[in-house]
Write a structure and sequence with these properties.
By secondary structure, the chain is mainly α. The protein has a domain at 123-284: Alpha Horseshoe (Leucine-rich Repeat Variant). Helices cover 56% and strands 0% of the residues. The protein contains 15 helices and no strands. α2 packs parallel to α4 (47-60), α5 (66-75) runs antiparallel to α6 and α12 packs parallel to α14 (208-220). The protein is elongated, with a radius of gyration of 23 Å.
């Protein structure tokens, strides 16, 4: 590995620019020998130096730095906090999940967005309830990133919350939610995915993604015959979430199950499809 002695010495240079560049250079070496100096530099008085140090720790990806990065989520400026969240996402250490979940309540929207991204990278199901709640926030960047993160995690307990935003006014959020449902159909299919079909049927003309996800859900749930939903670890109750407005698409009242009786819910084998889907299939001869 590349020798880091010169860059480590520069971390104590009186010039802020030199310290900042030294931290960035140490990250690119990915040499664990630089960890003690970088951890000490986390206390640097210059904001930009601290940001570069957090980035460097994420590039080295040594678990020794995880506690210091978690502490950074609690006490630092927004810029360093963002880089710490992204570094933890790159390192994928499960011990950082609770801290990142707490960071979803940070005052800065960019920090919340990076925390949501990091939780998606970790693919830890513990983050599903909080990311599902983030879909109902007013910050569009956080909502979009939360939808992507839920797709990366691929847990069926996120299905009701993702369905609840399929008719949201934000087109990017709708697309991210649809893609997430498609990923869940591949990684952890469940009968509740069928509740998304009527909505996807009304959105297919906006983007090919919607029809592709609809076909994936149909294929993933084709063999499920009145399977009861799991009684353990129930998903968040989508009925408690505010229903998004739909000014440009028709409204569909979905029978999303409640948590209290989820173990008794069954889903019909053959979901009702809209006339557009039936026409498309007839034209294709399927």
């Amino acid at each position: 590995m590349e020798d880091v002695t010169e860059f480590v010495a520069k971390l104590k240079h009186p010039n802020e620019y030199i310290r900042r560049e030294a931290a960035a250079a140490l990250g690119k070496t990915r040499n664990p020998a630089a960890l003690p100096a970088l951890l000490e530099a986390l206390q640097d008085g210059a904001v930009r130096v601290r940001r570069n140090v957090a980035v460097a720790l994420g590039e080295i990806k040594d678990p020794v730095a995880v506690p210091a990065l978690i502490a950074a989520l609690q006490r630092w400026d927004e810029g360093a906090c963002r880089e710490a969240a992204r570094a933890l996402g790159e390192m994928k250490d499960p011990s950082a999940v609770p801290a990142l979940i707490g960071t979803l309540q940070h005052r800065d929207v960019r920090v919340r967005q990076d925390a949501a991204w990091a939780l998606g990278e970790m693919k830890d199901p513990r983050a599903v309830p909080c990311l599902s709640g983030a879909l109902q926030r007013w910050d569009k960047e956080v909502r979009r990133t939360a939808a992507v993160a839920l797709g990366e995690i691929g847990d069926r307990h996120a299905i009701p919350a993702l369905i609840a935003v399929l008719l949201d006014n934000d087109e990017a959020l709708r697309l991210n939610a649809a893609r997430a449902l498609g990923k869940i159909a591949t990684s952890d299919p469940a009968p509740t995915l069928r509740f998304a079909l009527p909505m996807l049927d009304r959105l297919w003309y906006r983007d090919p993604i919607y029809e592709a996800v609809q076909e994936r859900i149909l294929a993933a749930t084709a063999g499920m015959k009145n399977l009861p939903l799991p009684a353990s670890a129930p998903p968040p109750d989508a009925k408690s979430l505010p229903r998004p407005a739909a000014t440009d698409v028709a409204h569909v009242d979905l029978p999303i199950p409640s948590v209290t009786n989820i173990e008794k819910v069954t889903v019909p084998v053959t979901p009702a499809l809209g006339w557009w889907t039936r026409l498309r299939r007839a034209l294709r001869g399927s």
